Amino acid sequence: MGAEALTATGNSTAREAPLVLGLQASALVDHVARVDWSLLDQLPGERGGSIPVAIEELEHILSEVKPHVISYPDDSLPMKTIAGGSVANTIRGLSAGFGVSCGIIGACGDDEQGQLFVSNMSSHAVNLSRLRMKKGPTAQCVCLVDALGNRTMRPCLSSAVKLQSQADDLTRADFKGSKWLLLRYGIINLEVIQAAISIAKQEGLFVSLDLASFEMVRNFRSPLLQLLESGDIDLCFANEDEATELLRGSEGEQKADPDVALEFLAKHCRWAVVTLGSNGCIAKHGKEIVRVPAIGKANAVDATGAGDLFASGFLYGLVKGLSLEECCKVGSCSGGSVIRSLGGEVTPENWQWMYKQMQTRGLTLPHVPK
Fold first, then answer.
1. Can you list the alpha helix ranges (DSSP code H) found in the chain?
2. Most CB atoms within 10 A, among 56, 121, 132, 247?
């Protein structure tokens, strides 16, 4: 399969190394809509889960969405179609909301969805010179949000183009000069993840890992533990379900709780963070442990991207040299900003809301180029 690197976009050139790199083997486009429960009841599987589907099923769901859309006064469109994926959400947030130079390593298809991904990410000044364009389809996901803000996802990934660990899809030149590599755990891309970590460590980068989902942790726990125990993961993000799932079945731990999981992660990572939804987060660095409450939970419209944008804020704090508690507070502010509207992309109005929240708490405001 042929591939070509896209030229750099936004305020970075191909020669400038972004401070933060995100690895997302497959570019992804999200179709996000608020829908009533009658549509969710028609879908196989449980509400709130994520079950892979074929392209025909994805297209069928999209064709059924319109009559079931729950419209809100502030909605201009019944459905948002935007660049998606956990890493892309975090990278876009870091660049757009915090002014941190970011790039993405991955592959997109030479189709309409690939063009949309490129357009959306480049409009937020994300460097795309490490994004390979390949012949074939770009991954897609339908994200259906119910009246309570909970999301049900149906991704179509199997036939999508993706980065390969072989050939020249990953090179040392991609990593040279950057400071952070962001990853999301996934068994389908494990070889690429391992190869990227190896190169990143040779080039002196810090590595951040998000645990993805409790299902991923449960089903593929052994290789995850190997990654953590390697000592190559500097920062680990886990939500409460993922953190407790990591310990369940380990050393007889049947009643694993987030605090125990935090201690476990901190044994292997310099920074460990467990997000607790409406209860905020806990984090540990060295001997320091902090607890920070959630911000903005009362106005939750859609939980999509909450953990991803929390990571954006936390990483902004780290690169700016803020304290552990301040990193968590910024993360809570940015995580709270994205849940106020539909999809994993923060609106300009909600960035302004976040800056006000940061200012109220005495946090260092970012300098974001206009």
1. 37-42, 55-65, 86-98, 112-122, 172-175, 190-202, 214-219, 221-229, 240-247, 258-268, 306-319, 324-338, 348-360
2. 121
Q: How far is CA 74 from CA 77, 276, 340, 351, in A?
A: 9, 29, 11, 16
> In the numeric block, which tokens belong to residue 326?
């301040």
CA 234 – CA 95 distance, rounded (Å) = 21
| Six token digits for residue 77 | 């469109």
- Fill in the DSSP letter of residue 279: G
Q: Which uninterrupted H or E stretch holds 142? A: strand 139-145
Fold of 20-360: UDP-N-acetylmuramoyl-L-alanine:D-glutamate ligase (3.40.1190)
* 328 in Cβ contact with 273 (< 8 Å): yes
pTM of the predicted structure, to 2 decimals: 0.92
3-state DSSP helix/strand/coil % of the chain, to nearest 5: 40, 20, 40
pLDDT digits (tens, 9 = 90+) for 176-196: 999 999 999 998 899 999 999
Rg (CA), the chain: 19
Q: Could you give the strand order of the β-sheet that contains 79-84, starting from the edge strand earlier in sequence?
A: 79-84, 28-34, 139-145, 151-156
Q: Which two tokens stand for residue 254?
A: 């049947």
Q: In angstroms, rounded to a whole number, what is the distance separating the alpha carbons of residues 363 and 355?
A: 9
b or e along 77-91 (b: 16 or more beta carbons within 10 Å of the residue's beta carbon)?
eebbbbbbbbbbbbb
Please state the domain extents for the chain. 20-360
pLDDT at position 234 is 98
Strand pairing partners for 34? 145
Q: Which residues are within 8 A (CB) of 151 and not within 5 positions of it... i.e. 6 or more apart? A: 48, 143, 144, 145, 302, 303, 304
Q: How confident is the model at residue 168 (pLDDT cuts 50, 70, 90)?
A: confident
Percent of the chain topping pLDDT 70: 90
DSSP letters, 187-212, are: GGGHHHHHHHHHHHHHTT-EEEEE--
Calpha distance 329→358 (Å, rounded):
8
Q: Which of 307, 45, 60 is nearest to 182 (CA)?
A: 307
Output the CA torsion 153→102→347→121 (10° steps).
-60
| CA dist., res. 195 & res. 188, Å (int) | 13
pLDDT at position 3: 57
